[in-house]
Design goal:
By secondary structure, the protein is an all-alpha fold. It is 42% helix and 0% strand. The protein contains 6 helices and no strands.
Length: 163
Amino acid sequence: MNELLLILAVAMLVNPKGTRDASLDGKFTQAKSVEAPAFTSARPTVGFHDAARLRRGQRVFQQNCAVCHGRLAEGHPDWRKLGMDGKFPPPPLNGTGHDWHHPKAALVQVIKNGSPGGKGNMPAWQGKLSDQEIEGVIAWFQSLWPPEVRTVWARIDRESKRQ
């Protein structure tokens, strides 16, 4: 019961309006648009993942993902608005976007297969990045998430495995 209350409290904190993010309607998500949680550090938090994995993930992220998602995974400032090309710009992956609403399996699928439903310009990385590199990238951007977001995400991820 206490976990449920924590999830609801964090959800209201980061998304007080409870609005849907229409950019991600599809098989991977029931995501909601969110407001940025109050946190100021872009330094990775060791503990959620080991330091060696974080270093590898950061290296792969900087070489492949930062060009679109930003050096600190901050995403495009207007990531919720359709661009001139009719697609959504790259979202933040630092816990201030919708990334943490998705279980790990969904994050892996988006990285491997690209933007779901052609709603964004995310390319498919399958065959370009190994499973280990993809896992490292996810570990690195998750290390940027505030502790409250990581707690809620862990619950979402566990629940997804039960279904």
